[in-house]
């Protein structure tokens, strides 16, 4: 699939530090050490009701990682999927009476436009589930060869017990897994399964549903195997970071990892699993199923500056759960006005320290709020909000504009 266009990124006169991110599997901050290009997979949208502020927060969060790696001198290979066939998409298409392919295409395009407006760097490979069906089939065959696949009626299931490391991504106990599995697309109660936690690999054709030919009969991929197959093909095993929102820790990232680890037992799926917090609205997680959504495209249509949206997102650490309010947007617009004044004065308070602080904060578990606070201090010094304007550095404005663009994706 086509991704979206690349925003301009200024090159910086100094390098940023190596990048540390929080790893859900170990519960620790890990310093990434890419050998060759840094390899990142971030779970993409299921294309209906895109792009709400929760999606935007997650992709802006991982955009900080891409930028931090680049600023540390690494090339980055970034892969993202589009779940362009799955139960929730088909259900929505039926409900609103539109063709599921048309719905997926329309929403994917909306997502591309929103990502472009938010200056999110595009993945090198933007890959749909439908176009990846041959990869999925090949991976299921490898799992069959490993003895990890069985049938329930005409559907194929993955045996989670085939992976000795199963459970290692979430660290959850079995009761917790059983409770959440059913709420997030799993079917723990289905009769005929060997273990209630086993997940669907291939769903045999049902009347009225799309299906593709395969050695297992006509059908379509289960959800987790889609990301396993795409990541393995486009990044290989033991890639640097598997990312997504915290709602994907279990079962999605657990299952994707186990599937690949059974196919290729010599490596872990990823070296780190990094998760963004959940954005809420009206007191609950913003989600398509609840319908409490604020859309990037809606705000753009009412002439909201996309940089103000990005500013709100950056104001919250990517790992924290937080609640969207319209007030945040008005405050961001005001702050940007003030920043613009300082950044375009030309001369300003010395820039070296703030440049280093921004790079260090983003490299330290993508701490955008700390980076913004450093810039705010520089803006205050430059404008003399305490009565003492400091314009001692003649090129400060340009230097600070460059670092907030390169590291934070804010073009002001
Ligand atoms: N297609 C799958 C991943 S393979 C999927 O989860 N799609 S999604 O459209 O539901 O979500 C897309 C991304 O946005 C995922 O990484 C998900 O974790 C994240 N996300 C969804 N809702 C929120 C939210 N309220 N806050 C933050 N991130 C969210
Ligand atoms: Zn995924």
Structure overview:
The chain has 412 residues and is an alpha/beta fold. It has two domains: 20-280, Rossmann fold (3-Layer(aba) Sandwich); 308-317 and 326-408, Four Helix Bundle (Hemerythrin (Met), subunit A) (Up-down Bundle). 41% of the residues lie in helices and 15% in strands. The chain has 13 helices and 14 strands. The strands form four sheets. Strands 5-4-3-10-11 form a five-stranded parallel sheet, with helices on both faces. Strand 3 (38-42), helix 1 and strand 4 (76-82) form a beta-alpha-beta unit. Helix 9 (306-314) packs across helix 10 (326-343). It is elongated, with a radius of gyration of 22 Å. The mean pLDDT is 97. 5'-O-(N-(L-cysteinyl)-sulfamoyl)adenosine binds next to helix 1 and strand 10. Zinc ion binds at residues 43, 81, 227, 252.
CATH 4th-level superfamily of the largest domain: HUPs
CATH architecture of the largest domain: 3-Layer(aba) Sandwich
SS field, number of helical segments: 13
CATH topology group of the largest domain: Rossmann fold
End-to-end distance: 31 Å
Radius of gyration: 22 Å
Largest sheet: 5 strands, parallel
- As a percent range, the share of helical residues equals 40-55%
């Amino acid at each position: 699939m086509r991704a979206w266009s690349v925003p301009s990124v200024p090159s910086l006169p100094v390098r940023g530090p190596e990048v540390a991110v929080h790893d859900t599997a170990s519960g620790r901050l890990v310093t990434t050490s890419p050998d060759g290009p840094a390899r990142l997979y971030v779970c993409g949208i299921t294309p209906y009701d895109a792009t709400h502020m929760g999606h935007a927060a997650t992709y802006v969060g991982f955009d900080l990682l891409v930028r931090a790696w680049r600023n540390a001198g690494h090339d980055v290979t970034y892969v993202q999927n589009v779940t362009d066939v799955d139960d929730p998409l088909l259900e929505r298409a039926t409900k609103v009476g539109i063709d599921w392919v048309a719905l997926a295409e329309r929403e994917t395009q909306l997502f591309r436009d929103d990502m472009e407006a938010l200056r999110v760097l595009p993945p090198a490979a933007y890959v749909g589930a439908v176009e990846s069906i041959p990869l999925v089939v090949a991976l299921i065959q490898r799992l069959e060869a490993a003895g990890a696949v069985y049938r329930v009626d005409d559907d194929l299931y993955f045996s989670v017990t085939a992976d000795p490391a199963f459970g290692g991504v979430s660290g959850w106990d079995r009761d917790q897994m059983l409770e959440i599995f059913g709420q997030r697309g799993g079917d723990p109660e289905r009769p005929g399964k060997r273990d209630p936690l086993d997940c669907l690999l291939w769903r045999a054709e049902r009347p009225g549903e799309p299906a593709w030919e395969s050695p297992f009969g006509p059908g379509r991929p289960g959800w987790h195997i889609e990301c396993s197959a795409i990541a393995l093909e486009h990044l290989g095993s033991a890639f640097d970071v598997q990312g997504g929102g915290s709602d994907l820790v279990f079962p999605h990232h657990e299952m994707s990892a186990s599937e690949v680890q059974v196919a290729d037992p010599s490596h872990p799926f990823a070296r780190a699993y990094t998760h963004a917090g959940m954005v809420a609205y009206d007191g609950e997680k913003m989600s398509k199923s609840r319908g409490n959504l604020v859309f990037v495209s809606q705000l753009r249509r009412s002439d909201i500056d996309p940089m103000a949206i990005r500013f709100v997102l950056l104001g919250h650490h990517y790992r924290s759960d937080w609640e969207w309010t319209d007030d945040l947007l008005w405050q961001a617009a005001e702050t940007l006005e003030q920043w613009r004044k300082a950044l375009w004065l030309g001369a300003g308070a010395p820039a070296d320290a703030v440049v280093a602080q921004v790079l260090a904060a983003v490299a330290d578990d993508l701490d955008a709020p700390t980076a913004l606070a450093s810039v705010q201090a520089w803006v205050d010094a430059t404008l003399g909000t305490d009565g003492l304007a400091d314009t001692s550095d003649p090129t400060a404005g340009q230097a600070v504009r460059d670092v907030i663009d390169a590291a934070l994706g804010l073009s002001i």
